[in-house]
Structure prediction request, 743 residues.
Amino acid sequence: MVPQNWYLLLSALLFGLGIVGFVSRRNSLVMFMSVELMLNAANLVFVACARGHEPVRGSVAALFVIAVAAAEVAVGLALVLALFRLKKSVNADDAQELRA
Amino acid sequence: MTTPDVVGAGLLAVPLATAALLAFFGGRLRGKTPGLLASGAAAACFVLALVGQAHLLSLPPERRAVTASFWPWVELAGPDSRLSLAVSVLLDPLALTWTLFITGVGSLIFLYSVAYMEHERGYARYFACLCLFLFSMLLLVLGGNLVLTFVGWEGVGLCSYLLIGFEYGKKTAANAGRKAFLVNRIGDLGFLLAMFWTWKQFGTLDHAALRPLLESAAAVPPLLALCYFVGAAGKSAQIPLFVWLPDAMAGPTPVSALIHAATMVTAGVFLLCRLSPLFLVAGWALELVAWIGAATALVAALIALRQRDLKRVLAYSTVSQLGYMFLACGLGAFSSAAFHVVTHSFFKALLFLGAGAVIHALHGEQDLWKMGGLRAHLPKTAKAMRFGAFALAGIAPFSGFFSKDEILGVAFERGLAGRADGFPLFALGLATAAITAFYTARMMTLCFEGESRRPMTIGDHAAPHEPPAPMAFALQVLKLLSLVGGLALGIEIAGWTPLADWLEPSLARSSEAHEPSHLLGALLMALALGVALLSWRLAAHWFRGDFAVPRALELSAPRAGRLLLARFWVDETYDRLVVRPLRALAELCLEFDRRVVDGFFRAIGSSAALVSTLLRLLQNGVVHAYAFWFLAGAALFLWLAIG
Prediction:
């Protein structure tokens, strides 16, 4: 059996990739995907830990996150669409109107 | 409702209601209506005062002090003391004497104003203030307790401020009003302190209840009497608080007449008379009153010698005459002081109203050196003013002669009785009488006699003309009063003196204040009359022709001349000793307020602004930056949670 720590290590790796992607990429669709990566990294931790300790609760939490992520995708893509209509671009740097 | 109730309530309600009416609806009244309304109110008050007088005369002398109480005002009770005040009116000979001349002379001045102020702006406002002035003065003299007297006292101060600064657009008038108000406040403080002290000492402030307590008191602290005197000196323009009165002439001339003759300045003498039993047992305080009175009389008379402004000469003559009244009070002869107040109100009102007629005829010219020869144009005014001037100068048989002579007689008798200060005070009084006659004659000669010194202006189409009917009427009545007032009130007939005997129940009389015997009295009268006539003739002669003698005098004693012209530099001294240090202190406070107090709160405000400026840098609109800070924050919390 694969030791639990490896799952955690993989999860941290995926989460770090998500962070780096979210902060460094300008394309809002890529940023969006990075968020999904981070959510799934969290899911991996839930599931991995559920196997050893609390099978039901851990799986339910992962299912919850998937449901929330689906809703988030619906809202997020709508936002990206709206941004594209406004700016003719999906580049996040083109929308800086809220600068103080 | 008894007669005193009606008289007391009417005397206060009528002027107050008229003042309110004119203040709120005066602007809608057309033409002379406000003036006629106010004059009618003043005349109604005079009639009420006569009714009150008749009522008191119907009572036996010892019961001539009637209190009409209207409603309870202040009821305070402490563990061992209580204060109970009612809104009440005390009708007694003293209050009614004042009421009679306030309303009588006041009505004439009101009537005079109807014509005098006709073309001025703020006609209704003027008469509203005048009515309020009348109300305050009546409250002052009629109030049944010291607190009501004080309310009237303050009201008089307020109205004098409003009326002196009536032409508030003129800087001199506005400043003079303020000066009168501020100088009066010093006196008011004295009155207030004295009132507290009286309550502590005697437990009551009611005039009627206070009187027997004061009469049975063996002695009161001289300082208490001195506090009252400070109040009186403020209102009645005595050294060292006389500076406001000469400036008060910045108001319209009828206002000067009202302030100088009928109201305001007589309030101080009234207070001294009202508290005569207190002053008689106050030790050295009474002597101080006499000396200050005599000194004020002399100093003001000296200053009046060289003033160029017609109204200023009269203003200083008022200060000087008030000095005589305080001298009389200080000698314990309160009825003589009251007598002089009454005669003075006649002739000073006449002189001021006459001066108003002259100024009116000359379109506002007040400089004596630009007058001269006016008798040809204003024969009636000149004659009326001559009556007033004779009365002021103390020439028999005009009214001022008798009252002034009575005061001098009391001083002389005090010297004969062996008191060391009697003769010096008499000498001061006599010297002042001589100077008074001199400056009065100088003023009259410069104004009405000799050649005209009026500057010839092109288009001077209107030659000086006599005043219109209401003004002339007021002058004629006052002329008559100035002639017979002294004789009618002060002459002794078979041991009965009208005014003195009438006032006797309400005044305490010093056992030391005697009037001289008949022979001595006649001699003193002759002496005073001789001195007055001589200096009158001298001045009339000197100032008629080419002014050779005054010029020579001026050249031989330039410093004395300048001293008098500059009014002993009293105003300048006050400016240096009081005004400027106070102003420096005020500026120091302002700086402290601006730098330290404001600085503290501004620092709080600007530190918040600074923090917000820094935080604003974070909100740059770049989503990635937000994400970075968000993650950094999350990492920080994580670290804190774990570490």
Notes: The radius of gyration of chain B is 30 Å. The first strand of chain B starts at residue 66 and ends at 77. The longest helix of chain B spans residues 570-616. The mean pLDDT of chain B is 89.
